[in-house]
Amino acid sequence: MSSTNNHHIARFISELKTGSLLTKRKSNGDQYSRHFFLDEYEHFISYHQSEKVFAQPNRYYIHKINEIRPGLQTRTFDRLFRHKIVEQEDAADTSGEGVLTPDEFVNLFYVLTRRKDLYAIMQQYVKNGHKQSMDTIRMNIDELLYFLRNIQNQTIIKYQSDECTSDYLLVSVTEREQVQELINEFETDVELQEKGQLSLNGFRNLLLSDEFSVMKPWCSRHIYQDMTRPLSDYYINTSHNTYLFNNQISGTSNPEAYNRVLCSGCRAVEIDCYDGANGRPIVKHGYTLVQPCLFESIIRFIEPNLFKISPYPVILDLENHCSIEQQHEMARILKQVFGDRLITEPLSTNDSSVLPSPEDLKYKVLVRVIEHDLAGLFIYFQNIPFLPNENDKDNYSCCHSPNLSEKHFDRILENDPLDLIKQTGKSVFRMYPHGLRQDSSNPDPINAWNFGIHMVALNFQHDDLMMSLSYGKFIDNGGCGYILKPKYLINAYKINFNPFDYLKKPLMLPDNIIEHPQRLTITIISGQFLSRSNETTQDIPDPYVVVSTHGILCDQQTQKTKFIENNGFDPLWNETFQFNICFPQMCLVRFDVYDYDVFTKDDRIAYFCLPMTTMQTGYRHVHLRTKHNNLTYSTLFIHVTIENN
């Protein structure tokens, strides 16, 4: 081999070791940018560590690589399309070589992803639509205006200036000029834009956009609720044992866990504090194998992210097991790191008989404790036991914040539920999971919310059905972490509202309960790109959809579709379900997609949850989430109607 060739090979190997930024695609549609490189000793290919603290990058050992295929000749693509493209794979291969070029693959992809369900809808609202093919069908301005105004009842956001501001108007689609703007935005064919026409691809782009999805975009993007009420009038997004990444008995206490929950919209985090070496307090899970970390590390680590997602107050729930000396050190750290953002005295403008509002406390940090020397930092949330005796309850102030275990909460509901719900109108209550939940599983938060509990602390590290309810609850109001309660819960002490009175649907609600019972009708039409939940299996999913409503007891219902065999690519259901809802303001609607398995427990592929009051009617896409509420490319296509009962 010549020296020139040796030089080129050496340079090539050096470049491989330096690496390159590539996109790593997973079978569920997720994609990540990763810096791939060849190992220094040339044993394997890997990539630089992700932001996940415990994530371990895969190593692709050189001696285990059987072959390298150029272009798109991989088993992944073959498995993706094997049930869809037998005839179209041949038509797309214009060269006849049995291999697709990138351009041929893109063309094939467009053919495969053309939506027959959307085509059928267009045919209904386009003149002579039944005579048009998928390639030739067009919707003109007037036809699209009719569809958006009469079928979708569409409202769009009109920003007065920058989209990042709250300066916006909600505008109904009523003018041809508005429709032309939408065509210009979503139609990719310039000639059709100029003609004021929308193709099938443009129609798909429009209905897939966030503006036209199942959730009203102003509810997820913007803080629109009244934020000037006392804190006791709100539900607060709350984390339990925030420092944990795994279960309750092993692993490490990790500052990154706090940033993870804060960036998901959580506003109240828990810190279990103990005496550490050299006078430095530590955070750990007592009487377990969980490794500690420094209290100061957590405080300094979370400081840049406190108000990145929401401007409203962050509550530090300090479970204090420290000596007086180390409490002094904790107070010093808090004051030094947070400065004037730390609330250390009552607000001068606040009525002392009620708590301040989230608006009053913008960009502030509150400490929730009762204990010893740290009492100097407690202003508005004194963590006290629940007072079971009637006489003791007169001693409650608005600044008292009772802490209830899951088991204790259940016991109170058995004995005196009405008294509990009345007390939540004055003080902020917190409920946390039972100590026996060593696997970090979560209690159902719905019942606690029904009875007015403000802070239902959940294990964010455990991705279960209960966490998806929490994500659905707090996706509302711009994801700011504070949700205003319905008036019948705010004023429960006046009207004696008791959720147990509504185990069955009432014929009529009392006049003092301001609600509007509604009939929710959902048609599950189809799904798109529903990937396997288990990446190690080569099986194509057999998906089915579970639709459930969660709220006051009489409104809790579950219905499901049949399963579609071997089709996660574009399953078609066209199944309709009705839900009669008495308390829409308290109702969450959850969509769960499962993979049917005759032998084992069905795996949940993806989900989405949202408040019923935020749903748009008409034809809508549901953009599904996966583990820890991460976005996917998977969608459901549904039709929604909401009628007054």
Q: How does this structure look, described?
A:
With 645 residues, the chain is an alpha+beta fold. It has five domains: 4-68, Pleckstrin-homology domain (PH domain)/Phosphotyrosine-binding domain (PTB) (PH-domain like, Roll); 71-112, no CATH class; 114-212, EF-hand (Recoverin, domain 1, Orthogonal Bundle); 231-494, Phosphatidylinositol (PI) phosphodiesterase (TIM Barrel, Alpha-Beta Barrel); 502-644, C2 domain (Immunoglobulin-like, Sandwich), CATH 2.60.40.150. 26% of the residues lie in helices and 24% in strands. It contains 20 helices and 27 strands. Strand 10 and strand 11 form a beta hairpin. Helix 7 (176-186) packs across helix 9 and helix 11 packs parallel to helix 12. One of its GO terms (molecular function) is phosphatidylinositol-4,5-bisphosphate phospholipase C activity. Its EC number is 3.1.4.11. It is an enzyme of class 3 (hydrolase).
How are the elements arranged and paired?
Layout: H1 3-18, E1 20-25, E2 31-38, E3 44-47, E4 60-61, H2 75-81, H3 86-92, H4 102-112, H5 116-125, E5 139-140, H6 141-151, E6 155-159, E7 168-172, H7 176-186, H8 190-195, E8 197-198, H9 200-208, H10 217-221, E9 234-236, H11 255-262, E10 268-274, E11 282-283, E12 293-294, H12 295-302, E13 314-321, H13 324-338, E14 365-369, E15 381-384, H14 390-393, E16 400-405, H15 406-415, H16 417-423, E17 430-432, H17 445-450, E18 455-456, H18 465-474, E19 482-484, H19 487-490, H20 492-495, E20 518-528, E21 543-550, E22 557-560, E23 572-581, E24 588-595, E25 603-611, E26 618-626, E27 630-644
Parallel strand pairs: 10-13, 13-14, 14-15, 15-16, 16-17, 17-18
Antiparallel strand pairs: 1-2, 2-3, 3-4, 5-8, 6-7, 9-19, 10-11, 11-12, 20-23, 20-27, 21-22, 21-24, 24-25, 26-27
